[in-house]
Amino acid sequence: MDGITPGGLPAHLDGFVRAVREAGIPVGISSAVDAAHVLTAVDLLDREQLRHGLAAVLLHRAAQRPTYDVLFDLWWPLTDRPSVPSEAEPAQDGAPDDGVPDADRQAALAAELRAELLRKLLDGDEEALRRFARQAVEQLGQGQPSPSGQSFFSYRVLRALSPDTLVSQLLDGLLGGADRGGLAEQVARQTVRERLAAFRAAVEAEVRRRSAAERGRERVARTAVKPLADQVDFLRAQSADLAELRRSVAPLARRLAARLSAKRRLGRAGRLDFRKTVRASLATGGVPVVTHHKPRAVHKPELVVLCDISGSVAGFSHFTLMLTQALREHFSGVRAFAFVDSTDEVTRFFTPGADVADAVQRIGREADVVSFDGHSDYGNAFGVFAERWASAVGPKTSLLVLGDGRTNYRQPGLPVLADLVRRSRSAYWLNPEPARLWGSGDSAADKYKQFIPMIEVRNAAQLAEFVTTL
To answer: How far apart are CA 211 and CA 214, in angstroms?
Structure first.
């Protein structure tokens, strides 16, 4: 593989493992040692075997695979060993001087490569397709260097070859005269989608490889690798990130329920049974060597969730409502309240099996959370909650407040919050803003944290850490 010598293989592997770790994938010492053993067990000339072998010892979750693949393509690129020239690969003995304009020559080259791409897609040979992508980037992908120093671009290749316009020809080739409209066509269309996606991914990987050769692997990795879903800030999460977060919410909710339930218990046993303890101590000369306790009735925890759903925390509120839905499956009584500048109970929108996206839309349409101008007013929201649902918080209740604590310079409602915290069994505030911003501008987070433990929870990883340490 490019730039890797047998003597430098251990150092190269160490750099790759460090890059994987820096991308947010936890890699321990034992996994790094296992990765070194993989190099002795696989065929190093078989790139895909090496890819899957290292993935088996370095990855823990399927969601980590896209990040890993990008880094693998940067650290273990395709070799430059010669292959059999294709029909569309003309000999390059310097710039031709045949009087043909460069634009026409480029158009002819693109047409030849396009015909070759059609044959490669019909064959379905993944290795051949990747090598063709490398050839296409070499001949069509170079442009004027950007300010960052990049000189090869995937959009130039995809624009010249227009692979999406080959769908009809690919279907004809794969169906081989079979009738359209049946199961065979559905399978063929799925095959076409997968092969086109593989080609685009191969082009992008080759462009990244060339950029890494020009600008350095580490620099390209910082911009090319997307954060893992559990490290994406809730306030900046996109729809695709939220879809991945939905899969991580359920286990977190289950663990959170177990932790809050454990917090309710004074210990494994109930209160001391004085009479039984004294009676038992007679056998040891009046020394209470063994204590006896009254059995305690175990209750499922009750939870009240107060969610800020104002526009400034839209991504976070979507996540917290997903968390609320998941928590309902583990708490005997979950009551959810949403607020902007007023508060309304939204428990009714989270019936068992309800779709979270639909619930969020219904809350926006039907919930009475705006009483004045639609800007956050924590003081009024807390006051409305305490006035209408004071009985919701009691000695058996865990209170969870979710929001950024930005009050638009309005009254923060500190006495009301302090009273709610005092009446609850336990209370926590999860804040999606960095702790360094608490108290800046219109943030009253520094005041609120005097009455309630405030936890920085900007992503799912920090939420998992909070649940673990609770």
So the answer is: 5
Q: Do 60 and 133 share a domain, yes or no?
A: no
Domain extent, residue 440, equals 235-264+299-469
pTM greater than 0.70 (yes/no): no
Q: Identify whether residues 319 and 431 lie together within a single domain.
A: yes
Overall domain count for the chain: 3
pLDDT tens readout for residues 229-283: 667 777 676 666 666 666 667 677 777 766 666 554 444 556 777 788 888 887 7
Helices 183-215, 126-140: crossing angle, 10 deg rounding? 50
